[in-house]
Design brief:
There is one protein chain. The chain is α/β, with parallel strands linked by helices. It is built from 26 helices and 16 strands. Among the domains are: about 110 residues, Hemocyanin, N-terminal domain; about 160 residues, Malic enzyme, N-terminal domain (Rossmann fold). It has a seven-stranded mixed β-sheet, with helices on both faces. Strands 2-4-3-5-6 form a five-stranded parallel β-sheet, sandwiched between helices. Helix 22 packs across helix 24.
């Protein structure tokens, strides 16, 4: 089936972003609406119909010409933070142009609108603030949660919510109310990479205070000026948000982002059996790392039944990766979760995790802690000793301990396996456990490498090796797309394994072992289609999908998915005369809301 026929066949679906777009605005109101604004690209007939004559220069431009001009403005910015601010301003003015510019220069701009530059923007949120974006909920005003969320539409208006409490942001720690920008950034990625409709998203920050003294002492800080609330009051706040969000937007998928170590896992554990939800730091990181690992196991001809894995750094990301590996072993073998967990050795600050550490272990760590009698009493618990004793096929770093994978450790690993699989994943780049160039040198070019940040290609032994980046953006948008389109009641472990298998199948290393273990971010929209298809098929098979008439034919399913993905193109505008238009009322209402409670979905910092 051609894409054109597929789009025509499915044009009745409510999320199909083609054909005329009903618009209630005209004149200056239209030019200030980022969803509808076309700027200099408004055609003559729309300039007449929407009373734009005299408000725009006379020359009518194409979207491509606008992109060219916008890119010149972008490149004139002095530094990456200035570029980030420029892009945020553009997003507030013209949504289509913003995303088209990003799509055109995705590889170059990705690190500016996401990590690491978005971390700088978050740290400077209160100083760069111009206009609110998203929904601001604070723990001292819980009675207003329903009112705040109601400003963003009715039951059918929101598909995807990203919510953060800002305690552990992008490796830079507690950023309080600035966390709204990580919710915004994640949603930008879902649109870029999976076509989630930008008008059907909701970024949320749960302001519970902050333990960042620098913010507390900053007179410009915009969040609650008090230390973080813990305990029952915190749990009640999260519960109240989840229940009201589900009541207001019953079809919405909730993505938890950058919660603290003590909260992330237990919040996910509480809600994943109740609602369709996802934690990217735990599950997204686990999925993308596992996909890279499975591709590497294929190259190195090691079966998952036999794989031995060492995870160095057992926080939210490390235990999330361990969980995904264990779940996949269970799914693909006849082993129990307990048996699968015994193929994984987790190390944290005290060394190898042992059951005798008791209360010092988090719940997520406990399931991977070894019985003390499994480890020789005369054997040390440090990384080198564990490598020597375990002889792992895979070494994964999520420790934020730079250069932890020393030459001695890597060479010790290479003594025992033919193709050492080594993933230094800590972000940002300065916190990486090893440099890819060193890993190739210390293993005589045999290492299979993936990193947590982008690295340039490595030349060794006359060969050039492109370095795979374990970028969650190749995975979590497709999972969300599949969950949204299928209206799955939950996100099951099997659905995540299906996503991993779909991502692994796109690994360039499966065709050439010298190529990267994961696809490039520039290919991610088609990767997201494959991931969404796998997730949807699994949801249907498990009886979790609630959407009707999901195609059963694989090719038709992919066309059904593509037809519902938003793309950055200008659609013809049609007059909207219905004063009760939910979307339009939602857009208008945002501007008047107190920025400490609710904000617009049009703008940013």
């Amino acid at each position: 089936m051609s894409a054109l026929k597929g789009a025509s066949k499915f044009k009745h679906l409510p999320r199909v972003a083609s054909g005329p777009l009903k618009c209630p605005f005209e004149g200056t109101s239209l030019l200030t609406s980022s969803q509808f604004n076309k700027g200099s690209a408004f055609p003559k007939e729309e300039r007449t119909a929407f009373k734009l004559h005299g408000l725009l220069p006379p020359n009518i431009q194409t979207l491509d010409e606008q992109v060219q001009r916008a890119y010149q403005q972008y490149t004139s910015c002095d530094n990456d933070l200035a570029k980030n601010t420029f892009m945020a301003s553009m997003k507030a003015q013209n949504e289509v142009l913003y995303y088209k510019l990003l799509q055109t220069h995705l590889k170059e701009m990705f690190s500016v609108i996401y990590t690491p530059t978005e971390g700088d923007a978050i740290q400077n949120y209160s100083r760069l603030f111009r206009k609110p974006e998203g929904c601001f909920l604070n723990i001292r005003d819980q009675d207003s949660i329903e009112e705040c969320l109601s400003a963003f539409g009715t039951a059918e208006d929101v598909d995807y919510i990203v919510v953060s409490d800002g305690e552990e942001i992008l490796g830079i720690g507690d950023q309080g109310v600035g966390a709204v920008l990580i919710s915004v950034a994640k949603l930008v990625i879902t649109t870029l990479c999976a076509g989630i409709h930008p008008s059907r998203q909701l970024p949320v920050v749960l302001d519970c205070g902050t333990n960042n003294e620098e913010l507390l002492n900053d007179e410009l800080y915009l969040g609650l000026r008090e230390h973080r609330v813990r305990g029952k009051e915190y749990d009640d706040f999260v519960e109240r948000f989840v229940q009201i969000a589900r009541k207001r937007f019953p079809n919405a998928y909730i993505h938890f982002e950058d919660f603290g170590l003590q909260n992330a896992r237990r919040i996910l554990d509480k809600y994943q059996s109740q609602i369709p939800c996802f934690n990217d730091d735990i599950q997204g990181t686990g999925c993308v790392t596992l996909a890279a690992m499975l591709a590497a196991l294929h190259v190195s001809d090691v079966k998952i039944d036999d794989v031995r894995v060492v995870v160095f750094g057992s926080g939210t990301a490390g235990t999330g990766i361990a969980d995904q590996i264990a779940d996949t072993i269970v799914t693909q073998t006849n082993k129990s979760k307990e048996e699968a967990s015994k193929q994984i050795w987790c190390i944290d600050k005290p060394g190898l995790l042992l059951k005798s550490y008791g209360d010092k272990l988090t719940p997520a760590q406990f399931s991977f802690a070894r019985n003390d009698n499994e480890w020789p009493s005369d054997q040390k618990h440090d990384l080198h000793s564990v490598i020597h004793q375990v002889k792992p096929h895979v070494l994964i770093g999520t420790s934020t301990k730079p250069k932890a994978f020393t030459e001695d450790i890597v060479r010790e690993m290479a003594k025992h396996v033919d193709r050492p699989i080594i993933f230094p994943l800590s972000n940002p780049t300065r916190l990486h456990e090893a440099q890819p160039s060193d890993l190739y040198e210390w293993t005589d070019g045999k290492a299979l490498v993936a990193t947590g940040s982008p690295f340039p290609p490595v030349e060794y032994g006359g060969k050039k090796y492109d370095i795979a980046e374990c970028n969650n953006s190749t995975c979590f948008p497709g999972i969300g797309l599949g969950a949204v389109l299928s209206r799955s009641r939950l996100v099951s472990k099997k659905m995540l394994v299906a996503a991993v298998e779909a991502l692994k199948a796109k690994s360039p290393a499966l065709e050439d072992p010298n190529r990267p273990l994961l696809p490039d971010v520039e290919d991610v929209r088609e990767v997201s289609v494959d991931i969404a298809a796998g997730v949807i098929q699994c949801a249907v098979n498990e009886g979790l999908a609630q959407e009707k008439d999901i195609p059963t034919d694989d090719a038709e399913l992919r066309e059904w998915i593509r037809a519902q993905m938003w793309d950055a193109v200008y659609r013809p505008l049609a007059k909207e005369y219905d004063e009760k238009s939910t979307l339009c009322k939602k857009k208008e209402s945002h501007a008047s809301l107190d920025s400490h409670r609710c904000g617009t979905t049009n703008s940013e910092k």
